């Protein structure tokens, strides 16, 4: 496993991180979760990503249990705050009250005295940004949080946060952003990445496999394979349905020869592509089985030749690649042509 600095900070993270969105506490049980966490550790992954809102706290609890017995200093635990954790108006967002209470609750569920990275899961237009940044800074001063990050913020929102933190003289600053980024979804490239590279903010990207579509497991005109996220039901099926059209899966299937020529599996090709971007500090993989982690981890340290990158773009074509920066913070909005006929918008 190769390691990279988290932005311009001194913190090293494994360039492939393990995340438990839609899996721990939702799709797999504690035993399966522990098997995946231990498989991640076995391949050298030290960075683990979760959020309080994942399975309404259960994902944090499962991760905390799975890491028991692991030396705390040997791993980096990342979690997030913003999503609704109750019915009350103060049980969500980035107000000082919710940030402080949510952090304490996360620490308890994760069974740790501190988290390495605490991230604002989304931007909150209902809370003064100054209030949020001061609350985050206080958590750092208290030793409960070591580094700060955001997730799916626009370039202008990140720039405002940096300016306000400077004006307030805060000691802690944002060092990471967690956006969706993969072969099909490149909306951060136009605005977010240039700003973050100038400001020393690293990208810890999620969904490098586009919910598994880029692994090649889904074939056009065929039902999803048994055990896959698309076949599991629940929220995972809804999310992946947005990118599981025959148009996409048919084009992705053509990447098999590109991957084979590079000596990689399709999943490794997709993850390696993300890691070619110098602005990326880590790519978060999700898995319900240990073998998936071992396969994905094979992308660490891979350098793709320019000819391979060109072939990838030729296969996918501009019609399937989303680059519109206005879709930042809308990680599951896709081009109309992407929509799978089985997908229905919740509600």
TrEMBL record:
<keyword id="KW-0560">Oxidoreductase</keyword>
<protein>
    <submittedName>
        <fullName>Aldo/keto reductase family protein</fullName>
    </submittedName>
</protein>
<dbReference type="InterPro" id="IPR023210">
    <property type="entry name" value="NADP_OxRdtase_dom"/>
</dbReference>
<comment type="similarity">
    <text>Belongs to the shaker potassium channel beta subunit family.</text>
</comment>
<dbReference type="InterPro" id="IPR005399">
    <property type="entry name" value="K_chnl_volt-dep_bsu_KCNAB-rel"/>
</dbReference>
<dbReference type="Pfam" id="PF00248">
    <property type="entry name" value="Aldo_ket_red"/>
</dbReference>
<feature type="domain" description="NADP-dependent oxidoreductase">
    <location>
        <begin position="15"/>
        <end position="315"/>
    </location>
</feature>
<dbReference type="InterPro" id="IPR036812">
    <property type="entry name" value="NAD(P)_OxRdtase_dom_sf"/>
</dbReference>
<keyword id="KW-0521">NADP</keyword>
<feature type="region of interest" description="Disordered">
    <location>
        <begin position="217"/>
        <end position="236"/>
    </location>
</feature>
């Amino acid at each position: 496993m190769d390691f990279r600095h988290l932005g311009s900070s001194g913190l090293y993270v494994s360039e492939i991180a393990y995340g438990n969105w839609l899996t721990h506490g939702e799709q797999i049980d504690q035993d399966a979760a522990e098997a995946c966490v231990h498989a991640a550790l076995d391949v050298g992954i030290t960075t683990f990503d979760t959020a309080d809102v994942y399975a309404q706290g259960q994902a944090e609890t499962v991760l905390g249990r799975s890491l028991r017995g692991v030396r705390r200093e040997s791993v980096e635990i990342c979690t997030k705050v913003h999503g609704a954790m109750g019915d009350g108006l103060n049980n969500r967002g980035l107000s000082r009250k919710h940030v402080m209470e949510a952090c304490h609750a996360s620490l308890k569920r994760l069974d740790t005295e501190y988290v390495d990275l605490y991230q604002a899961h989304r931007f909150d237009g209902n809370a003064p940004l100054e209030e949020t940044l001061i609350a985050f800074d206080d958590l750092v001063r208290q030793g409960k949080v070591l580094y700060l990050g955001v997730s799916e913020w626009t370039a202008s929102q990140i720039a405002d946060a940096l300016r306000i933190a400077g004006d307030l003289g805060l000691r802690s600053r944002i060092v990471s952003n967690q956006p969706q980024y993969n072969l099909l979804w490149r909306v951060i490239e136009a605005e977010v990445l240039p700003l973050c590279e100038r400001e020393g903010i690293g990208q810890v990207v999620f969904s490098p496999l586009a919910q598994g579509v880029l692994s090649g497991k889904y074939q056009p005109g065929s039902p999803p394979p048994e055990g896959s996220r698309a076949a599991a039901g629940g929220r995972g099926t809804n999310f992946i349905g947005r990118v599981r059209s025959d148009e996409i899966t048919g084009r992705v299937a053509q990447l098999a020869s590109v991957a084979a020529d590079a000596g990689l599996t399709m999943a490794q090709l997709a993850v390696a592509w993300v890691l070619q971007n110098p602005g990326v500090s880590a790519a978060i993989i999700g898995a319900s089985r240990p073998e998936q982690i071992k396969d994905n981890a094979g992308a660490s340290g891979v350098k793709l030749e320019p000819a391979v990158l060109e072939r990838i773009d030729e296969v996918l074509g501009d019609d399937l690649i989303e680059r519109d920066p206005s879709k930042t913070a809308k990680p599951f909005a896709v081009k109309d042509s992407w929509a799978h006929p089985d997908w229905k918008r919740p509600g």
